[in-house]
Every structure is written in structure tokens, then in C-alpha cells.
Amino acid sequence: MVTSTKPIRVRFAPSPTGRLHLGGARTALYDYLLARQMGGSFILRIEDIDLKRFVPGAEEEIVAGLRWLGLEWDEGPDVGGPYGPYRQSERKEIYQEYAKRLIDQGQAYYCFCTPQRLALVREEQQRLKLPQRYDGTCRQLAADEAARRVADGEPHVIRFKTPQEGHITIHDHLRGDIVVENKSIDDYILVRTDGFALYHLAAMVDDHLMKISHVIRGAEWLSTFPLHAHIVRAFGWEEPVWVHLSLFLKPSGKGKMSKRESAELMKDGYSIFINDLQGLGYIPEAVLNWIALMGWSYDDHTEFFTKKDLIEKFSLDRLNPAPAAINFTKFDHFNGLHIRNLSIEDLCQRVKPFFVKAGYQVDDKVLLSIIPIIQPRIATLDEAPSVAGFFFEETVNPNPAELVGSKMTVEESIKALRAAYELIASLPRIDTDTAEIPLRILADQLHLKPGQLFGMIRVAVTGKTISPPLIETMAIIGKEKVLMRILKSINLLENMK
RNA sequence: GCCCCCAUCGUCUAGCGGCCUAGGACGUGGCCCUCUCAAGGCCAAAACACGAGUUCGAACCUCGUUGGGGGCACCA
């Protein structure tokens, strides 16, 4: 067990080669929570050493996603900090210097094998069903000969000289000690022909130089974990606390999310990409709560967490190493929960763009007044227009067939709607206290169940068979418009005769 | 093929040798509330992968099997 009194310093180190997804966001969240809880520092480091894979705009999207989630960092490419630069592409020389150090110590070596030969070796190994790894050709080269060839300008890489005997014991915070035979660890390339370091070297050097106390990363790094520990130990550095987070599996639980499946998901209104979520009607509070609980738990009954709660309650000791299938229906549940936890004003602001996008002319006062009735009725913000869009319509277009009351004839329906019209017209205005009782009495007089009468009026006024409670709805729409809509519906029914 | 990781309801999980006839949440079904729809409340069905061992006692410890996942690049 590593107990340290050193300051907590954690880093989120994405590569700008793709979009920020749920897995990355969760890693960043845990980093953030640990840092905030312990009064430590959260660092953003951009791992952009592979120019070939660099995707323009990717860094911007990652940054935007983290900001939307509210995971602010203390040091990073944009805000600077005492251990910069925070972009690996700007640290090339640093890595070369450390690679040289390993060579001087005899723990790394120059390799002149061509990619073509290596590919051939791999093919052969595959054919013979042998472990696929470097065959060690350049490992035996005498140091002075290698140095001479390098000086002559011969293309080369630098490889780590992994011990060939014995084993290494490494410690993962979730899984405990892991013992790996050294002979199963490859002589990985540390520095490429073009002089750029690979992740294995760059990340270890940066983590050390940036005084990272806890390396929190995905379990896909578990396989190269022994190599990384070897590198850190070769330099004689103290190891950070290693935390390999469980992987996220696709909803079926079978394997990782693929490109094609991500596109399929979009059709159902879901996405694994953080920057899609806002447009889909999700709110960051819910995203945080949901992903925090994928691989972490607090106790056996608490599941609703705000960011503040999470900062307070998060603990690395309650992380679960088992892979977790992504459960989007639970995401909807959390989103609904957090929407209901929002103030009316806050929800009003957040939901407005969705009405605008749906093409409604939004009156702010009307919008504010309908928020309380839509709040418990939506799981995602984008559902709001379909629930309450009619509030912003001048007229609605009911389906005449739906205007006919349940178990009633057209004639009876017209009679009932006329009576309702008269009654509402006689009211000074519509509100819950004054309109409900008279309408119920009317239903009784017409020998109808309240549901039958209310149902017809509902269709007439909202154009739909499903709506928020009728009286509140009519109160917001206003007496005048309500009467106009009922009149129109009576006409529609007349035409059915 | 090789290396590594993982294993409790459909899914996310609690459980760290006796509090377990295994608890919670989502989802599902039913009921209540009710002018429809939600929200809310109550109830129900639903799991320790299998086999050995250790122990007075095992979901919990050990080994094996099976299953799942990840990796095996001059990507990260």
C-alpha cells in the first residue's frame, strides 16, 4: 500500500484523435473528484505526439465537453501551470533526453530493424502460433557499434530493454498485486524513427515531471502496465498510485462500442459522445451522476448525487474492477431526476432552445408558467416541445374522430362541447379553483363521467388525447383562446354528421 | 495462438466467513393516487456461472473449469 503525504495531483490525458466519450468523461470525473476532495490539482494534458493521427478540432471538442460537464482543470494547455508545456507535441526534446538516459544506463537500445522486416517476423510468428513480439535482433548489438550507426545517420528507433528473466510485481489499486513474467513483456519501442516518443515513454516521463500522484486511466492500459512500471523503475522514480478503471461495454454487454453501433444509438436518441448529449436533451448534472455510478458506488441505497455530493463522497476504495455495460435507460431516469431537481427558472432557461429549435415562437412569460407542469413529465429536455408545444400555437388541429367522447355519439359530443362552451364563457376567467367544480357539475348534469367531458375538451383545446392536467392547461392558454378552440372543434364535429 | 483482467437479478450494483430465507436502483408487471399523461407511493417476479477444496460455517478464502472482456503497432 502506497501511503503518501505528497499533494494529490491527477491528470486527464486525452489524445486529440477522437471525440470525448463516456469512458473518458468518467476518467476525467474521477480525476476531478479526487483532486477537489483532497484539495489537490487536476491537470489536463494533451497527448498529441502522433501527428499522423491528429484530428483537427478534436482538442477543442474535448475541452468543450469537459467544460460543459463542469470539470474545470487547474493546469493545462490553455491555463498554463508550473509544469508545462501541457501538450506533448511541445515536449519532444524532453522525451529524447530521457530516452538517451535509458540508453546510457543500458536499459534501452537502438534498433535498426525496418518496419517491413518486423511485419514479416510478426506474420511468421502468427503462422507458427507463437507470441508476437520483437525477435531481439538489435538487442545484442554492441553499444559502440550502435552508436556509430546512429552517428552515420542510419534510421533507428529506441527500444526498452525489458529484463528477460524473472517477473515483475505491479500494484493496481483496484486489483491488488499483479505478477507478470518478464519474458512475456516485449521490448517496446520508446522513440520512433522520426524522433517522437511513444506513449509508453512520454506518459511516464510527463507523469513524473508533473508530479502526478495517482494515474487514473482505462483498463485497456492493463496490458502495458508492467512495461510502464519497468520504465518508471528504470529511472528510479517513485511510482504513482495506479488505478485502472473498468471498461465500458456496449448496452448488450458484449464488447466495446463500435463506430457503427454509435450511429445506431443516435437513432434512439442516445450517444456515447459527450458533445452530442446536450442536443439530445441531457443535462450535465445527470451525466455526472450516471457515469459516476458506473464502476463506483457509495453504499447500498444512495444513488442521487450532485457534483458537490460526489466531491464529498467519492472514494477510490469503492471502485469496481468489473467491466460495466452502458445502461441508457438508467441515464434517462437520472436525467429526469435531475431535471426535477432544477429550479423553475433554471429549467426554463435550459428548455427554451428546444422550443425554439422546434420552431415555436416562445413567449418567456408563458414558458415560465408552463415549466411546473412539464417538469415532472419529461426525462430529456428535447421532449418538452412535444409535451407542451401547443401552448405556443395560435390554433390546434384536433383529429375529429378523437373529438367524439368516449362511448358517445357525434351528436352527444356536440351537445356536451356546446354546454362546456357556455359554461366556460360564463366564467370570469379560468383557474383551478373556480373552473373545476362547475365542469364536474356539468358532467354530472350531462350524465357523463368527468373523464368523458374532460377528454373531449382536452382534445379540443390541446389537439391531443394526452396532455397536462386540463384546468391548469386551460388557465395558461386563457379563456379567449380556449373558447375559440372549442368552437372550432364543434364545427369539426358538425361536419362529421 | 500468447499475455493480462473480470465473474451476484435482463442491466448498474451492496456484500469484504456467521447479520443473507442475498439488500438497493433502472427496467418489467400489478395496485394506489387520478380528468388523460407523467411524477409520487406501495407490492411482485428476477441473481450468488460450474466443480473441487479450506472451515463448525462460504456469495465472500484457495485451486480448477467455463464464460466474458482487454491487449499483442514506429496508435493512444
Quick structural summary:
The chain has 497 residues and is mainly alpha-helical. It has helices at 22-38, 58-69, 92-104, 115-127, 143-151, 199-209, 225-235, 259-267, 274-277, 284-292, 307-313, 328-340, 344-357, 364-374, 384-388, 400-403, 410-426, 432-445, 450-462, 470-477, 479-494; strands at 9-12, 41-44, 108-111, 157-160, 167-172, 176-181, 189-191, 214-218, 241-245, 248-249, 324-325. The mean pLDDT is 94.
Description of the molecule:
By secondary structure, the chain is mainly α. The protein is built from 21 helices and 11 strands. It has a 3-stranded antiparallel sheet with strand order 3-4-7. It has a two-stranded parallel ribbon with strand order 1-2. A two-stranded antiparallel ribbon has the order 5-6. Helix 10 (284-292) crosses helix 12 and helix 18 crosses helix 19. The longest helix is centred in the first third of the chain and has 17 residues, at 22-38. The radius of gyration is 32 Å and the shape is elongated. The chain starts with 8 loop residues before the first strand and ends with a helix. The model has no long low-confidence stretch (mean pLDDT 94). The structure holds one RNA strand of 76 nucleotides.
